[in-house]
Amino acid sequence: MTTDGALARLIRSSADRAAEAEAEVCDLCAALVPDEHAHLYDTGQEEVRCVCGPCSVLFAQGGAGDGHYRLVPRRRVRLPKVDTGVLGVPVGLVFFVPREDGTVTAQGPSPAGAMRWDVDAAAWQELAVTCPRLATVEPEVEALLVNTVHGLDHHWIVPIDDCYRMVAVVRREWRGLSGGGRVWPAVERFFEDLTERP
């Protein structure tokens, strides 16, 4: 056995272990999941969990559990401009999540994660009258995602996991006190890459 051969095997073995450590797994059964996979929303922890195909089937149409986990839908709908100013949230990059109990929360990204505000539920209902598609937002697992920063005009109904991806983009790219030069181009790319899905 040569030293070169042993070194090559050690390097390959380390690379294989690193690849396995980076691979995503189902948070329920630990099976490997592909890059494109379903998500469950954990209503108790308010977190998104990765799930494999067979496990996602269990939660389709509310089929499994006590409602603690909800299958995150894939629908994305681009909306015309929505006057979210009536909701009283003074930021231009925010997502609004209706809850099962009728309340609505607004969350905006920051370098430390998502900031959260309570929104007047009556104001949300009034806004849904002017934009009827908002009444179709599935509580807990879908959101109205808005970006009006720097004159942009993006209004989307998206799955909640898209909102968390957007928060992760801001956290990853933010530099210094004002965000630096990378965060807003990254946010714009995020919105440019959104595509409508039924």
Automatic annotation (TrEMBL):
Name the UniProt record assigns to this protein: Uncharacterized protein
Tell me the organism: Streptomyces chartreusis NRRL 3882
Q: Which Pfam families match?
A: DUF5947
Q: Which domain of life is it from?
A: Bacteria
Q: Which InterPro entries does the UniProt entry name for this protein?
A: DUF5947
Starting at the broadest rank, the lineage of the source organism is: Bacteria, Bacillati, Actinomycetota, Actinomycetes, Kitasatosporales
